[in-house]
Amino acid sequence: MSSASVFKIRGSRLPYFLYLSLVLDWTTPFLTHAGQPVGPVVVATYEGVINPVTAEYLHDAMAFAEAKHAQAAILRLDTPGGLDTSMRLMIKDITGSTIPVVVYVAPSGGRAASAGVFLTMAAHVAAMAPGTNIGAAHPVAMGGGEMDKTMKEKVENDSVAYIKSIAEQRGRNVTWAEDAVRKSVSVTEKEALTLKIVDLIADDLPALLKKLDGRKVPMGQTSAVLHTKDVEIVEFELGWRLELLKALSDPNIAYLLMTLGTIGLLAELYNPGAILPGIVGAISLILGFYALQSLPINYAGILLLLLGIVLFVLEATVTSYGLLAIGGILSMLLGSLMLIKADEPFLQISWAVIIPVIGVAALVTFAIVSMGVRAMRRLPVTGREGMVGLVGVAKTALTPGGQVAVRGELWQAMSDEPVQSGTAVEVTAIEGLTLRVRSTPEKGALR
Asked: Is the residue at 145 inside a domain?
């Protein structure tokens, strides 16, 4: 059949525009595969500890990518590890995704340790930047207590089974995955590529997109082909709310919030009605407890911190010649050292934070509680009680009764000894509407 007869219907040629439409329909798939992708690539970047903030961020990023009809989502990751529960939520989002997910360990100098190993192994495509490393996925106790031998074996075996199933699903090195959990092994990006832990090495994001172009990615029973040459890149930002929650998860911030919250509540208890210390203290404590949920907390450390602040308060109200203050400093120092039970530096409280906090806590506690104590001991200045101690002048002779002027007011007064008119008198008591006074000519009169 000739090419001309293809475009004839009952002896007449098709209109030119219809012919052009048919040509475009036939050629469009080839043009699309040649480099015009049907959707953008969404890039999410996270650096820090894996915690509930990270899990929420990835979940939102995946939902955004699917709403944008993205052809792939890239998680640029640099993490020392984190919470097992948050990691598993993130892996569920990755394995349940309808679009390919690429975990890219970057930038140079970054790492995917502990929980980051699981996330990288779970990705549809795993990539690393030069100068990065991956490994050391041995589980640790989160909660301050030492795991006994039986519990330790249970947790370790559960983690091994989990990472092995992930590695088998993605066709990655199962033996190394098990060693990463049991032996805490760690490798460089080149070793990871050789051992088939990751799929490729890329210097930066443009290089990664170039290497991903044309790659066939298994997606369950089907597969997807990536077309990332000159693709539109959409950055998914962390957002101010998650940035704030991420900052609160820092152990140094958690330590500050706990200390400030305790001081605020104690100050409110010792000086009722101040209001502001109580509000600040309550908010700080709530935020502090939120931050502590993602840290390996030793509860003995928390109790020592609270005891230290209580001793500071007692020092301001009880005469101990400094013994309570010394006890408070030692208690807070020991509590600070014991608060976070972990060997990882990123989970430790900095000495540059501990020393100033203890010093400021002591000074602030002394100041606030001392002001409260002085206020409670101060003589009344209003009402009937406020009259006692005031100095006036006798308007008439007191023999023993008469009139006196106090603060510009005339009062009936009584004196145990005769007082001449014009003599300065001091109020010693109030009996009904009569003042009890005594002669004090040396103080002068307040008319």
From this structure: yes
pLDDT at residue number 103: 97
Q: Which of 8, 21, 92, 154 is catalytic?
A: 154
Candidates 69, 78, 74, 24; CA nearest to 48 is 78
For residue 209, which amino acid is it? L
Of the listed 114, 159, 186, 331, which one is catalytic? Answer: 114
Contacts of 81 (CB under 8 A, 6+ apart): 49, 50, 113, 114, 115, 116, 136, 137, 344
Average confidence score pLDDT of the chain: 82
Q: Tell me whether residue 114 is one of the annotated catalytic residues.
A: yes
For the chain, the domain total comes to: 3
Break the chain down into helix, strand, coil percent, rounded to 5: 50, 20, 30
Domain that holds residue 436: 385-443
d(CA 4, CA 266): 94
- 50 and 146 together in one domain: yes
Residue 152 falls in the annotated catalytic set: no
CA angle 202, 206, 209 (to 5 degrees): 75
Report how far residue 386's alpha carbon sits from residue 109's, in angstroms, rounded to the nearest whole number: 71
More confident of the two residues 341 and 80: 80
Q: Are strands 434-439 and 409-415 parallel, antiparallel or unpaired?
A: parallel
